[in-house]
């Protein structure tokens, strides 16, 4: 536990480190594979849009219903002739969603459900949802996403540089694509809560990235005046120095979200919690991954293409090669005539060294004034 507790300090001071930038092609490959899987899932299965986006009716029964979800779903589909989504809420009531029906059809379905469920029709609450409201939410979400992306790129370009702005933009697109793709693969319903979750993860994803970028900017100030580190190596040191901080903030954020997803949504059966918590959970995990494995290595790739950084890398490697050659020359064994010449120049000392008379003078004398 003591070693684990000091891991962050050791990483921050550069005593230990993991070479994330050097293995960036592996991380790029993993991200490409995950992204392609998400896109394929999105193309094949598509998003399961909620009733807020399609329009239809929502029927909510009274509490403590003894009917199972599967049975209620069968009743709703028989009564409406459409696919139905049934969720059992925490108080035992049923939430039945049927898309693509009008007012007259809604009243008929309500009466049929009351008969099948053996409850009074007045105890079933019916609400009609128009598709135009969902379209407005989607349009506002796209507008908000576009404005957010533009402002982020402008801010990062001013506060840092355009390469960091581009890397952060790629990381954000990476996180959103993976989150939406997993939503399609899992088959969760897309509701306004999902939209809220997607917009929320953008800030979390950007937070870790900006923390690493700030450390990188500080450590690369006047980088061309030294010949000890290349830009990629300093970028790797920046990731390591903020690694434990990123992991801690991500874990702390994921714990309550996991509680919403697995306890609130799974045990209590709260549908809205499922919608928002899944997008938050996947987005937070993807954001932490992209800030470490995608954004900063991508910045290093872009910076290493600059003439100044290429020249710096050559100087650093040349200095290291020179130092290695000197170390090998010092460690090389001396034989033959070279050994004879070295013995003439500096004879080896074997056994105890003899002290000169002046250095031995005064030994055994009690301390005091010299005579």
TrEMBL record:
SUPFAM superfamilies registered for this protein in UniProt: Multidrug efflux transporter AcrB transmembrane domain
UniProt-annotated location(s): Cell membrane
Domain Protein export membrane protein SecD/SecF C-terminal: 114-304
Chain residue ranges for the region called Disordered: 320-371
Gene3D superfamilies, A to Z: Multidrug efflux transporter AcrB transmembrane domain
Transmembrane segment boundaries: 26-44, 141-158, 165-188, 194-216, 247-270, 276-300
A Pfam family the protein falls into: Sec_GG
Cleavable signal peptide: none
Family to which this protein belongs: Belongs to the SecD/SecF family. SecF subfamily.
Protein name as annotated: Protein-export membrane protein SecF
Organism of this sequence: Streptomyces fimbriatus
Designated gene of the protein: secF
């Amino acid at each position: 536990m003591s070693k684990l507790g000091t891991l962050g300090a050791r990483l921050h001071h550069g005593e230990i480190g993991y070479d994330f930038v050097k293995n960036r092609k592996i991380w790029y490959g993993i991200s490409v594979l995950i992204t392609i899987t998400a896109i394929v899932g999105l193309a094949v299965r598509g998003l399961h849009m909620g009733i807020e986006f399609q329009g239809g009716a929502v029927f909510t029964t009274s509490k403590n219903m003894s009917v199972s979800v599967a049975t209620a779903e069968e009743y709703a589909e028989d009564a409406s002739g459409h696919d139905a989504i049934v969720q059992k809420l925490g108080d035992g009531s049923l939430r039945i969603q049927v898309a693509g029906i009008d007012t007259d059809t809604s009243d008929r379905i309500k009466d049929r459900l009351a008969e099948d469920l053996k409850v009074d029709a007045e105890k079933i609450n019916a609400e009609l949802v128009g598709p135009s409201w969902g379209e407005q939410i989607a349009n506002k979400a796209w507008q908000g996403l576009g404005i957010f992306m533009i402002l982020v790129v402008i801010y990062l370009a001013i506060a840092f540089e355009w390469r960091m702005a581009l890397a952060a933009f790629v990381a954000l697109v990476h996180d959103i694509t993976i989150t939406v793709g997993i939503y399609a693969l899992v088959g969760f319903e897309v509701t306004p809560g999902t939209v809220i979750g997607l917009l929320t993860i953008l800030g979390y994803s950007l937070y870790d990235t900006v923390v690493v970028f700030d450390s990188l900017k500080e450590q690369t100030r006047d980088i061309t005046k030294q010949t000890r580190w290349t830009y990629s190596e300093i970028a790797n040191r920046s990731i390591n120095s903020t690694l434990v901080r990123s992991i801690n903030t991500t874990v702390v954020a994921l714990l309550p979200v996991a509680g919403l997803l697995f306890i609130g949504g799974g045990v209590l059966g709260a549908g809205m919690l499922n919608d928002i918590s899944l997008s938050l959970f996947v987005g937070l995990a993807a954001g932490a991954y992209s800030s470490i494995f995608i954004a900063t290595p991508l910045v290093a790739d872009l910076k290493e293409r600059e003439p100044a950084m290429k020249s710096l890398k050559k100087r650093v490697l040349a200095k290291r090669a020179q130092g290695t050659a000197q170390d090998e020359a010092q460690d090389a064994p001396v034989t033959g005539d070279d050994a004879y010449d070295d013995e003439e120049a500096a004879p080896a000392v074997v056994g105890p060294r003899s002290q000169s008379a002046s250095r031995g003078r005064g030994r055994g004398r009690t301390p005091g004034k010299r005579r």
